[in-house]
Amino acid sequence: MSSPEIASLSWGQMKVQGSTKTYKDCKVWPGGSRDWDWRETGTEHSPGVQPADVEEVVKKGVQTLVIGRGMSEALKVPPSTLEYLEKQGIDVRVLQTEKAVKEYNALAAQGVRVGGVFHSTC
């Protein structure tokens, strides 16, 4: 199973290949995607992306995880999340969301088992 391409990105909207849904924030992995509902883990811009936010994607067997911090990079990524990913042997890339989507799509096109969590606003 390959990682689906992120087909489009604009402020507050993302579309993922193979899904008819328009996401505001989303998680993607080889073979799927879904809404990233921050309320599930109590995530806020600060302290930011929690290990619980990325655990689902990690469990899909990704080699690399790309985190999109938002268009203005308002979403933080604390050391605890990076440490969790490192302990799982995951290569992590933390970028502004437009750059993160380009990086994710490039890795997916190369056949890398890549996943991502992306914030499409601030």
Automatic annotation (TrEMBL):
Coiled coil spans: none
UniProt-listed CDD domains: Mth938
Pfam families: DUF498
UniProt key word Cytoplasm: yes
Cellular compartments per GO CC: cytoplasm
Role summary: May play a role in preadipocyte differentiation and adipogenesis.
Family: Belongs to the AAMDC family.
Keyword annotations from UniProtKB, A to Z: Cytoplasm
Organism of derivation: Myotis davidii
Subcellular location: Cytoplasm
Any Gene Ontology biological process: positive regulation of fat cell differentiation
The name this protein goes by in its record: Mth938 domain-containing protein
